[in-house]
Amino acid sequence: MKLAGKCFIITGANQGLGFEIAKQFVSEGAHLMICARDTKKLEEAQRLLQKQAGANTKVLAKTTDISKPEAVNSLIAETVSHLGKIDGLIANAAIHGAKGPLDEIDWQEWSDAIDINVKGTVFTCRAVLPFLKKQGHGKIIILSGGGATKPMPYLSAYAASKAAVVRFAETLAEEVKKFGIDVNAVAPGALNTRLLDDVVNAGPERVGTKLYEQALKQKQDGGESLTAGANLCVFLASSLSDGITGKLLSAVWDPWSDLPQYIDELKSSDIYTLRRIIPSDRGKTWGDVS
Question: What is the pTM of this model?
């Protein structure tokens, strides 16, 4: 039971990856506060998780729009009131937002994605920090996505927001390292969730032929397992990962379960981080300074 007795908040936990993470956390003995905007789905998720957890584990739920600071503050206050503490946060809630060429999309829809994906993530981290700092330990896990490491034409709000939260995670990790708080980002892989359905339903005229066809193929093939991303989150939330911080880890491609044995090398390097590529990184000499 890697998380026995620990208390976590998971945002966007009423479906998809967020719900799978919650299931894995409950299996490992964690008490939870789950939140999302859809009350009906959230209540059903709470019911299923509590049934799985049994009588000795608490699973709380609160309808929350993380883009609203007052809603986030209320979420944190209620978590502390009912669970007594907060050991960590899994910032999973996100939307695609506006789809289409930048000069044609609805600006409010684009802005709303930034409010949820970036500001909402930052609001939630900001709200839990006083509690994590006071107790001298804690875990913050931020869910990344494909937009963090490659361009995503016609999904510019999503791509920009995911790159932003990864750099935010790196930055926050440096700020709170002295308080024993680890902050990491997780790339869960190409998942068949509502976000994939969102792309398919939008059609090639809004998301482009290439992305649309990729989405159709992924939907047919099944995509990556939700379990892989959830298992990585369990690892990062547990004491097994203590000292691993400021990293972007892939649930699918990285040997994350072996990382504790390389902790000293990780601490002194920029491995698993977002960095600028220069010509010499690709075997070129034309960018060298003479």
Answer: 0.94
Is 262 labeled as catalytic in the residue annotation? no
Catalytic member of 158, 212, 262, 272:
158
E-assigned strands of the chain?
A: 7-11, 31-36, 59-63, 88-91, 138-143, 181-187, 248-250
Angstrom CA distances, 155 to 111, 120, 258, 273, stand at 12, 19, 34, 23
> Where do the structural domains in the chain lie, given as residue ranges?
7-189+226-251, 190-223
pLDDT tens-digit profile of 121-170?
Answer: 999 999 999 999 999 999 999 999 777 888 999 999 999 999 999 999 99
| All residues at 6 or more sequence positions from 79 whose CB lies less than 8 Å from its CB, including other chains | 7, 9, 33, 60, 86
Q: Which residue has the tokens 């299996």?
A: 27
Q: Helix, strand or coil for residue 36? A: strand
> Whole-angstrom Cα distance, residue 175 to residue 194?
34
Strand order of the sheet with strand 138-143? 59-63, 31-36, 7-11, 88-91, 138-143, 181-187, 248-250
What is the C-alpha separation between 158 and 94, in angstroms, rounded?
8
What backbone phi and psi angles, to 5 degrees, belong to 267? -65, -30
Structure tokens at 86: 């907060």
Both structure tokens of 250:
């892939």
CATH architecture of 7-189+226-251: 3-Layer(aba) Sandwich (3.40)
